[in-house]
Amino acid sequence: MKKILSSLKNKKEIIIICIVLILFGFIYRLLDYPPNFTPIAAISLFAGYYFRSKLVFLLPILILLLSDIFIGFYDIKIMLAVYLSFAIIPFLGLFIKGKNMAGKTIFASLSGSILFFIITNFAVWLFGSWYSHDFAGLISCYTMAVPFFRNTMFGDLFFNGAIFGSYAFYSLYVAKMANAKNFQRN
Predict the structure, then answer these.
(1) Which residues, at least 6 apart from 118, have a Cβ–Cβ distance to it below 8 Å?
(2) Exposure string (b/e) for 99-116, b if CB count within 10 Å is 16 or more?
(3) How far is CA 101 from the centre of its chain?
(4) I need a labelling partner for 113 at 20 to 30 A (CA). Which of 8, 25, 157, 177 fits?
(5) Interval 58-104: pLDDT, tens
(6) pLDDT digits over 153-182, tens only?
(7) Cα separation of 72 and 154, whole Å?
(8) What gap in Å lies between CA 63 and CA 104, rounded to an integer?
(9) Domains and CATH numbers, the chain
């Protein structure tokens, strides 16, 4: 079981999973959903956990860039903070390998949510014109963002469970089919 759930090695499987994740993230961002309740952070964490490439941070960037073409671009400085936040999350996936995967995945998911909240809202305060550029404005910015954080956190937990869980079931199915083939040959 542990071997099945280790990092992906089959290039064809990696390409297919990347395409599925990109399409899922892209299509979901085009739908009407609660603010910040998206699969992008979960896709990022999953990619960091399972894919071995050092370019894994490009997966969420590609999803964001492709979908922003249709959704619309916004203040470049704030947009870059959003992109940076999601580009960092795959590296959290490197730290959750090993035992107690569920607990570590929950911890990494919450860490990614907090990281996104801190980085993006700091950028909104620093580069935006909605809040005064003093300590009171910074506190006001983070305070006003709390409802969005709740959606981010629940969305990240939900989609991490769905994506990691789906892949675990897929892996078990593949292993079962391989065992059945080997049994038929013998």
Answers:
(1) none
(2) eeeeebbbebbebbbebb
(3) 16
(4) 8
(5) 999 999 999 999 999 999 999 999 999 999 999 998 888 776 778 88
(6) 999 999 999 999 998 888 888 777 767 666
(7) 25
(8) 25
(9) 11-185 (1.10.1760)
Q: Where are the alpha helices (DSSP H) in the chain?
A: 11-30, 40-50, 58-71, 76-93, 101-127, 135-144, 146-185
Backbone dihedral region for residue 125 (phi beyond 0: left; psi -120 to 50: alpha; all else: beta): alpha
Q: How far apart are CA 183 and CA 91, in angstroms?
A: 39
- Residue type present at position 103: G
Whether residue 118 is predicted with pLDDT greater than 50 in this model: the reply is: yes
137 Cβ neighbours under 8 A, 6+ residues apart:
125, 131
Confidence category of residue 129, pLDDT binned at 50, 70, 90: very high
Residue 73, Cβ neighbours under 10 Å: how many? 9
